[in-house]
């Protein structure tokens, strides 16, 4: 990996969690998307998107609410893909490597949430002086410069130095260790699904989890047709339960 | 709430306010005021339209709007629209106490954050991601592109519609929506659809198989292919996912669960129980 590519990885990380624009949190932050962009930087978009998508399964229903950030999926996605492409890793191994990275990355988020309070007091002073046209500086300019520094530097360094060690590191790993990595990669998506289930596995909807599973196992349908079926089933279900309520 | 004749703001002003809200709400996200400063940012270009010659009143509005605020950006954007409408009516001489605006904002942000996070991050994103990841792993980057475009366009569209709804209809309509049956129906349908997709996702993307073989003098019995696969393929991943869900229900943190998964993989991999 060249230093330019490493810096670009750092910039992707900044846009993924810097919240400028805000929708970056819903789009570029997801490993599927930032993995794809990292893949473009490293000259292999398809591998980037596929490895990123696999890593993303772990973070499916991860919720950032009330200023919390349970895992830094952007850093996991970008570095996981960068290491997968430079070190020739398969998706499961990259996933197993990226999960601890995602835990480490949350430091950046909490650092920001804490230090950004300083800029609010600058805005308070602007209001006191009736300089309302300057509020954007306190709300966007200063905190975003700060965010750029604390995101681009660590991610660039990790991508650059990590990539040069990764192939040697993987060579050291023999049969059993590699098997363990693959098992981790296979099991970890259960966490992403489990977290999502916390919000939707409720009451009468429960049975549909089993239905979806059985349908997928025996029909071999992909998620897109299954999603369409699921949407239709949901409409029918709501209509039927509505009719019952009316007739009662 | 906003009377057609009694307006200080043009459509362009509203569009600009909306764009500031949807684009910069978390540029300076912090523990002290959360998104409060961003609300002040939204009001900054409007304030001279509200009070042309009364600097003290301008300052009063800005001080009120920079207070603590936190909500789901897209679902809560109706609160910003509503707050703008209320400040506009107040500036036009309406008898609206400042504390009233603050208390309405604060009382709405909790419920809308709860509903918004559940629907958006708990249902919409997981379903859309599941489908797009599946498309991508089929060997095309289209999945990643479709997801990014759909979620960005969806976020801006929902947020804009909601912002204008709040501006036009006011706080009572928002309360009404929160309490009426429509929301419950949407939630129920989302749960059904989400459960179905998650079931399919388990079958496709969680993998767990045992390597246990029972060898006798005459034959080998492979527990995975000759027992579990004939019982029901993917039964182990399904059971394991329910186990993780159960742990989460028991309030085991996701960090600990990651540790447990790694531990299971090491023990299982070394002993050959898992393959």
From TrEMBL, chain A:
Keyword Methyltransferase attached: no
Protein's membrane topology: Multi-pass membrane protein
Name its cellular compartments. Answer: Cell membrane
GO CC, alphabetical: plasma membrane
Q: Which GO annotations describe the biological process of this protein?
A: phosphoenolpyruvate-dependent sugar phosphotransferase system
Q: Where are the transmembrane segments?
A: 7-28, 40-62, 69-87, 93-111, 145-166, 172-195, 207-240
- Read off the PROSITE patterns from this record: PTS_EIIC_TYPE_4 (PS51106)
- UniProtKB keywords: Cell membrane, Membrane, Phosphotransferase system, Sugar transport, Transmembrane, Transmembrane helix, Transport
Q: Which PANTHER family match?
A: N-ACETYLGALACTOSAMINE PERMEASE II COMPONENT-RELATED, N-ACETYLGALACTOSAMINE PERMEASE IIC COMPONENT 1
Q: What's the protein called, per UniProt?
A: PTS system mannose-specific IIC component
Upper lineage is: Bacteria, Bacillati, Bacillota, Erysipelotrichia, Erysipelotrichales
From TrEMBL, chain B:
What protein is this chain from? PTS system IID component (Man family)
Q: Which GO terms describe its cellular component?
A: plasma membrane
Q: Which domain of life is it from?
A: Bacteria
Species for this entry: Breznakia blatticola
Tell me the leader sequence span.
Answer: none
Recorded hits in InterPro entries, A to Z, give: GatZ_KbaZ_carbometab, PTS_IID_man
* Alphabetically ordered keywords of this record: Membrane, Transmembrane, Transmembrane helix
User: Does this UniProt record's set of keywords contain Hydrolase?
Assistant: no
Q: Where along the sequence do coiled-coil regions lie?
A: none
Give one GO biological process term: phosphoenolpyruvate-dependent sugar phosphotransferase system
Transmembrane parts of this sequence = 119-138, 144-165, 227-248, 255-274
Q: Enumerate the PROSITE patterns for this protein.
A: PTS_EIID
Record carries keyword Translocase = no
């Amino acid at each position: 990996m060249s230093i330019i590519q490493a810096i670009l990885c750092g910039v992707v990380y900044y846009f993924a969690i810097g919240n400028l624009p805000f929708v970056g949190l819903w789009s570029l932050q997801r490993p599927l998307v930032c993995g794809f962009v990292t893949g473009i930087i490293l000259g292999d978009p398809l591998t980037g998107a596929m490895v990123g998508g696999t890593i993303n399964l772990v973070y499916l229903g991860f919720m950032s609410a009330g200023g919390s950030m349970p895992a830094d999926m952007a850093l996991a996605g970008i570095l996981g893909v960068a290491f997968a492409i430079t070190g020739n890793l398969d998706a499961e191994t990259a996933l197993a490597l990226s999960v601890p990275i995602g835990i480490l990355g949350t430091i950046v988020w909490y650092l920001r949430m804490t230090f950004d309070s300083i800029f609010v007091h600058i805005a308070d002073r602007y209001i006191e002086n009736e300089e309302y046209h300057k509020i954007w500086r306190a709300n966007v300019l200063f905190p975003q410069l700060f965010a750029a520094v604390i995101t681009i530097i660590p991610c660039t360094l990790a991508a650059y130095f990590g990539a040069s060690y990764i192939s040697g590191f993987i060579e050291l790993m023999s049969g059993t260790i590699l098997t363990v990595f693959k098992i981790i990669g296979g099991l970890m998506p259960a966490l992403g699904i489990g977290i999502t289930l916390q919000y939707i596995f409720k009451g009468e909807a429960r049975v549909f989890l089993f239905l979806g599973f059985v349908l997928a196992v025996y029909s071999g349908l992909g998620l897109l047709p299954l999603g369409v079926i699921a949407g239709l089933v949901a409409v029918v279900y709501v209509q039927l339960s509505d009719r019952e309520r009316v007739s009662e | 709430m906003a009377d057609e004749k009694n307006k200080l703001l043009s459509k362009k002003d509203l569009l600009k306010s909306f764009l500031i809200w949807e684009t910069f709400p978390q540029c300076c996200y912090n523990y002290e005021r959360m998104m409060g400063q961003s609300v002040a940012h939204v009001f900054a270009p409007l304030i001279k339209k509200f009070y042309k010659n009364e600097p003290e009143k301008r300052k009063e509005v800005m001080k009120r709007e920079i207070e603590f605020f936190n909500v789901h950006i897209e679902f809560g954007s109706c609160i910003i629209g509503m707050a703008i409408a209320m400040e506009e009516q107040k500036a036009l001489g309406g008898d609206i106490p400042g504390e009233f605006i603050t208390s309405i904002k604060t009382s709405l942000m909790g419920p809308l954050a709860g509903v918004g996070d559940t629907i958006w991050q708990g249902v919409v994103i997981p379903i859309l991601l599941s489908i797009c990841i599946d498309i991508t792993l089929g060997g095309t980057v289209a999945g990643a592109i479709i997801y990014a475009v759909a979620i960005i366009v969806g976020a801006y569209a929902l947020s804009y519609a909601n912002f204008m709804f709040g501006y036009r209809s006011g706080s009572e309509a928002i309360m009404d929506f929160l309490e009426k049956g429509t929301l419950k129906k949407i939630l129920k349908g989302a749960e059904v659809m989400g459960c179905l997709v998650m079931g399919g996702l388990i079958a496709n993307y969680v993998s767990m198989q045992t390597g246990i073989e029972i060898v006798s003098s005459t034959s080998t019995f492979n527990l995975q292919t000759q027992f579990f696969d004939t019982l029901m393929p993917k039964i182990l991943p399904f059971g394991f996912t329910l186990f993780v869900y159960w742990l989460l229900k028991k309030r085991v943190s996701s960090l600990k669960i990651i540790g447990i998964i790694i531990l299971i993989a090491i023990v299982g991999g070394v002993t050959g129980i898992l393959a």
